[in-house]
Amino acid sequence: MSFPIPEPFVWDDSFKVFYENLDEEHKGLFKAIFECAKTPDNAGALAHLIKVVGEHFADEESMMTKANFADLATHKQVHEEFLGKIKGLSTPLSDDTVKFAKEWLVTHIKGTDFKYKEKL
Ligand SMILES: [Fe+2]
Ligand SMILES: [Fe+2]
Question: Distance from the CA of 84 to the CA of which of 16, 57, 58, 61 falls in 20 to 30 A?
Fold first, then answer.
């Protein structure tokens, strides 16, 4: 599955999962990646990205757990893999790394997060 990458990299309505807290967090993830793209040598921006990604995954997973969401285990694995990857990064971030993060977020929300729409 391939989805268009917004340019500039900003959240829009096409990413809505219709849970207000998660949509707000997704907006924050776009912002955090946007900052990393703008200042690839900024270690603070990378640390912030790692923090908000970790917090968002925890919130999403806890909502899926409460809802007994069937795909929780697979979804969690995908989260862990991405979090592990970004935790292993250091600045300056390469263009490829920034591109990877942008594509990952877009594909993850539209391809994976969308599966829990109306189910949490
Ligand atoms: Fe997710
Ligand atoms: Fe998400």
Answer: 16
